[in-house]
Amino acid sequence: MRAPDELRALVEEGLAALALSPELHGLEESLRYALDGGGKRIRPVLVLATCEAAGGRAEDALPAAWALELVHTFSLVHDDLPALDDDDERRGRASTHVAFGEAVGILAGDALLAEALRLALSYPSPQVARELVDATLGMIGGQYLDIRGDDYSEKVNRLKTGRLFDASVGLGLWVAEVPEAEQAPWRVFASELGLLFQLVDDLLDGDGSVASVGAEETRRLADAAAERAHARLDSLSVDTTVLEDIVAGLAARTA
Amino acid sequence: MRAPDELRALVEEGLAALALSPELHGLEESLRYALDGGGKRIRPVLVLATCEAAGGRAEDALPAAWALELVHTFSLVHDDLPALDDDDERRGRASTHVAFGEAVGILAGDALLAEALRLALSYPSPQVARELVDATLGMIGGQYLDIRGDDYSEKVNRLKTGRLFDASVGLGLWVAEVPEAEQAPWRVFASELGLLFQLVDDLLDGDGSVASVGAEETRRLADAAAERAHARLDSLSVDTTVLEDIVAGLAARTA
């Protein structure tokens, strides 16, 4: 079992060297720029850690892990566009549409989604790609509810953030060939983890749950989600130490 | 063997009743609007006709045919955006971003692409989805070269238009379970058909090839492409009468 930092190094190395379709021509530069933003790579690390905990090889899960990071990056590139969140910066750098222009920003997002599916389709069975595309549709639906601005915040978070956490765990399970009938407890774990991530995000940003129930209550809710995530891992009869580390890291994160 | 019009009716009926992901919530309305634009459905009809000619059942090819039409529609919705071609109208109606706002236009295109892949992934083998995603990447690369405005017109057409024609034939072949080693002549046919389509488009719009070599020479080139497409069909030892009709229809089209 490798520690989260070792898994993250595996993800980074492969992402930097990822072969993209030659038919993208010069558009490739904008995809690489968006992928090179130095995120925490939480989702792909979770894919690898889940796969190892479930008895698979992390290396076999790498294409699925990269695919998920590409979907996440696609969503950031499109969310940053002027018509959506209109963010000029992302992690201290110009966002993709600012660096390359809005037209390229739109096409770069499209291509990231298509490249993600191409990676997910490198597996002999279509299950990995199906998991990814279903989660992507949920995420897009969440983004739609978000821009509508209705009072849907829990539902929005469940879709916008939660669906990719579901997929992080789901992709690892499919690669490790865990039968669908045995996936339920893992998927409940994923759902607690997505909630924990969102609540800590709200604490760091001072919005969402913090705005509606306050920081103290949000911290309590986050700790309760972390506790339930740990309890769910305890119920699995496999070595989940790396996943425990990930839960603890998410609960304690400060950025 | 069913005539192109009968195949088109099959496509239309299913598209109107297509089940979309419930997680899209209200975004669904914009996808249906974009899909309901009354296009000629040339690409999905070609999927069905190829599948039947190659010995498969058109009904089995329907999800692949719809998937391709969704990718085509995704590309139109994003191409019409202000940052790209900035088209307010599409086939006599307000384009999707005008009818629903720019943010929804972006998300609707994203969701159409993801729904297309979901449909393509309904097959047990990943070949249909792989064909579709590879063609999509080529098409996006063509759109990138187009907005760059470099003098790439033949290459742009080969990618932007040609790759979805390749996929129209390729999808039909995979559903009919034609082994890859036997697909080459069909794929040459697809490439001639894509060229024919583009040349006739240029004749109708008075641009592209017409602007560079004139209308008369463009007509001659189109007729030569149609002739090569027919010759390629003649070389196949199956009943290709419906595909012959499609070639003749494309060569003679006036809209």
Number of domains of chain A: 1
Q: List the secondary-structure elements of chain A in sequence, H or E.
A: HHHHEEHHHHHHHHH
> Which CATH first-tier class of chain A would you pick?
Mainly Alpha
What is the number of helices of chain A?
13
The CATH topology assignment of chain A is Farnesyl Diphosphate Synthase
Mean pLDDT of chain A: 95
CATH superfamily caption of chain A? Farnesyl Diphosphate Synthase
How are the strands of the largest sheet of chain A arranged?
1-2
Helix-strand category of chain A: mainly alpha
Based on DSSP secondary structure assignment, what is the total number of beta strands of chain A?
Answer: 2
Q: How far apart are the termini of chain A?
A: 26 Å
Quaternary structure type: homodimer
Low-confidence stretches of chain A: none
Strand content of chain A: under 5%
Helix content of chain A: over 70%
**What is the molecular shape of chain A?**
globular
Rg of chain A is 18 Å
